[in-house]
Specification:
Shape: elongated
Helix content: over 70%
Strand content: under 5%
Distance between the termini: 43 Å
Number of strands: 0
Oligomer: single chain
Radius of gyration: 18 Å
Length: about 190
C-alpha cells in the first residue's frame, strides 16, 4: 500500500516538476496496483494525474479522457478534493484541445456553482480565473471582467497570493482590451 502511494505521489511530482516523461509509467503502475487491491481513492487520483501528465506531454485528448473518467469516479465516490481538481482542469484541457464553448462552459459553470455552494474559495478562484480566460477568448469582456473580479475576491478571502496575481492580470487584460489603458496599466502594476 505504501509503495503504491509513493509511486502515485512520485508520478504527481514528476508531472509538476519533472522529469515529466517519467510520470506516466509510475502513474500507470500505481493505477494497476490500486485496482488490484481495491484502493479506489488512489486509483481515482492517479487516473487524474496520469491524464494531466499525458496532456502535458502533448496527448491532450488522451489526457482529457482520463480526467473526465476521474471526474466520473469522483462524483460516484463523493470525492470533493478530486472533484475540485477536475472542475478546474477538465475545462482548461478541453479549451487547450480546441473543444467548443458548448462543451467547456457548462462544466466550468457547474464547477463554479459547486465551489460557491461549498465555500471552496481556492477552487472558486481557479475556475473563475479560467472562465475569465475563456470569456476573453470568446470576446465577452464584460463577463471576463466579472469572472476576474470573482476570482480575485475568492483568492483574497483565503490570501491565495498566486491566484490574486492571476486574477489581477485578467482584470488588466480586460481593461486594456476595452481601451481603458490607464486603469489597465494600474491593474497590471498591482498584479506584479
Amino acid at each position: 500500500g505504501e509503495l503504491r502511494a509513493l509511486r502515485a505521489r512520485l508520478g504527481w511530482s514528476y508531472w509538476r516538476a519533472g522529469p515529466l516523461e517519467e510520470a506516466p509509467p509510475l502513474l500507470r503502475q500505481a493505477i494497476a496496483e490500486a485496482q488490484a487491491c481495491g484502493a479506489h481513492e488512489d486509483e481515482r487520483m492517479a487516473t487524474h494525474d496520469l491524464g494531466i501528465a499525458l496532456a502535458m506531454l502533448g496527448r491532450v485528448q488522451d489526457g482529457s479522457d482520463l480526467v473526465a473518467e476521474s471526474m466520473r469516479l469522483a462524483r460516484e465516490a463523493g470525492d470533493r478534493a478530486l472533484l475540485a481538481r477536475c472542475y478546474i482542469n477538465l475545462p482548461s484541457m478541453w479549451g487547450g484541445n480546441g473543444e467548443p464553448r458548448a462543451a467547456i462552459e457548462p462544466v466550468a459553470m457547474e464547477g463554479l456553482d459547486w465551489a460557491r455552494r461549498t465555500m471552496d474559495h481556492g477552487t472558486r478562484s481557479w475556475i473563475a480565473v479560467n472562465l475569465a480566460d475563456f470569456q476573453i477568448e470568446w470576446g465577452d469582456l464584460a463577463a471576463a471582467r466579472a469572472f476576474a473580479d470573482e476570482g480575485l475576491e475568492a483568492a483574497i478571502a483565503i490570501e491565495y497570493q498566486s491566484q490574486i496575481g492571476s486574477a489581477q492580470w485578467r482584470q488588466a487584460i480586460c481593461l486594456l482590451a476595452a481601451g481603458d489603458h490607464d486603469a489597465g496599466l494600474i491593474a497590471a502594476g498591482r498584479a506584479e
